[in-house]
Amino acid sequence: MTPDGTLNRAAPTQSGVQPEIEDPSLGLVRQAETEVRPPDVDLDLEPEQELLTINMGPHHPATHGVLRLIVTLQGEQVIDLKPVIGYVHTGIEKSCEQHSYWKVIPFVERMDYLGYFFNMEAYCGCVESLLALEIPPRAKWLRTLHMELNRIHSHLVWLGTSALDLGAISMFWYCFRERDRILDLFEMSAGQRMHTRYFQVGGVFEDIPVGFEQKVKEFCAEMPDRISQYEALLDQNEIFLRRTKGIGIVPRERLLELGVTGPLLRAAGEPWDLRKATDYLAYPELDFNIPVGTVGDGYDRYRCRVAEMRESVRMIEQCIDGLPEGPWIADDRKIVLPPRDELSTSMEALIHHFKLVTEGFRVPPGELYHSIEGPRGELGCFIVADGSAKPGRVHFRDSSFVNLQAFREMSVGGYVADLIQNLAMLDPILGGIDR
Questions:
Q1: Residue 385 and residue 392: Cα distance in Å, rounded?
Q2: C-beta separation of 398 from 92 below 8 A
Q3: Which of 84, 261, 345, 401 has a CA 20 to 30 Å removed from the CA of 276?
Q4: pTM of the model
Q5: 345 Cβ contact list (under 8 Å, min separation 6)
Q6: Rg (the chain; Cα; Å)
Q7: At residue 89, does pLDDT exceed 50?
């Protein structure tokens, strides 16, 4: 500390010993001699090659959440990187065990707060499988429709904020312009722009209103041209290309070892997508392709996500055209709330309503894992049912949590300036990571 109160990281004491700084989060500090260096680092360094440890975050705009990165540098080269998580841990999984099954849905929506429809589907699909409950065809198609709208919404937020991190400010406003239209559609169908609780165990909360299909068709008619505008802005931007091409490459084999899924894995050339590999909702009846990359760098990750938006538009159009008629929720009064018109005419319906609201429905003992393809990869829900109206154990496989393992592989050996780009292309959501 200098006399004027500023922190001097390189000021030695009179004895020549570097002063010990207990909290490295204060800023840029020198690596203490007693600290353990990474095993692959040469310890016989010249004075100008000494290692530095910097803290990025936890309050940093480029982390897109409360994430702390402890970065070890040799000059400008990243020698080691350690993500520190848990700053927004709220105990969501434990809270789920303290509420009845149908009251859990608002909790799970708030994990990956950009993919709330996917959180609901992972949970509701798991409970429905434990109950051996088949939801109506119309409910399957409505869920698929909203999830693909949600996928575009999530990718738009990613594209706008990632381009903003790299200096392309205009992209942020263009992406959020289309995102706002999707939120208007959610408000129209579910009454809420975010955290809608639209999915219910047994189907969806209510049918889509009159005029919703036309609004969706208008959006789908305009979106391909909007995506082409995004590509024209970025694919000809020399700065964007230099910041993404050849940066953050991780081999496909290493990504598979780490359990990475989603656009990160597909960008490396692995065509793995649960919408094709498994049979859930209306996806088996839809015609769509799986975009894959070749190199697995930041540019391939960008191209895969943009191509996924085009495929989602195609699927949404197919959902609107093929939407079947019929009920939108299962007809099981012991699991699903009876409609309002029955409450004034049926004593049995009134009893079911009272029991469901006060106690909830019971799930037979058993355990089950249900996984779907979210915007960031495999999103899974594991439930242990003990026969009561509350889950005995709930655990989620969050794709951002697993994919974060690849961040070190993407960054070590590169430059500190590329950390921002690598983290942006990773697209982590800290609400899902910390839960």
A1: 5
A2: no
A3: 401
A4: 0.84
A5: none
A6: 25
A7: yes
